[in-house]
Write a structure and sequence with these properties.
Layout lengths: L3 E4 L5 H11 L4 H7 L1 E3 L5 E3 H9 L8 E6 L7 H11 L2 E5 L9 H19 L3
Parallel strand pairs: 1-4, 4-5
Antiparallel strand pairs: 2-3
């Protein structure tokens, strides 16, 4: 059975771009007028990309398990849960986990989560 495992996914790019615009005090009109805006945190906001994201909504049908860090600064748990509900995905939350799973403790948690999910998959039809 095919199955996807998402670790700290960005499941709503439009929401992330809107959040980044707020962080930089960039209005939608300003972004449209300038085309691109460099941020203080090293990302480039693009009107063309925002328009593409809006024109190409995400469609996902593969059975999915999601791992989310409670301290993820890029995507909120509400956004993750809404996405998960819409596609029927399970969500596991690591307390004090970050967007980038990188510490020894985070990697151990991720490893246990993957193993648990693979064991569960091996018992399915």
């Amino acid at each position: 059975m095919e199955r996807a495992y998402f670790i700290s996914p960005i499941v709503n790019m439009e929401r992330l771009i809107a959040d980044m615009m707020k962080w930089c005090s960039v209005s939608e009109a300003e972004l449209m007028e300038k085309g691109t805006v460099e941020t203080s945190f090293g990302e480039r906001l693009s009107w063309e990309y925002l328009s593409w994201v809006r024109s190409n909504p995400l469609s996902w049908v593969t059975p999915t398990a999601i791992l989310y860090g409670s301290k993820d600064e890029l995507q909120s748990i509400d956004t993750i849960r809404t996405f998960a509900e819409n596609i029927g995905a399970s969500v596991a939350v690591m307390e004090n986990g970050e967007h980038w799973f990188h510490t020894a403790g985070q990697m151990e948690f991720l490893d246990r989560w993957i193993r648990k999910n693979f064991e569960g998959d091996s018992h399915e039809g």
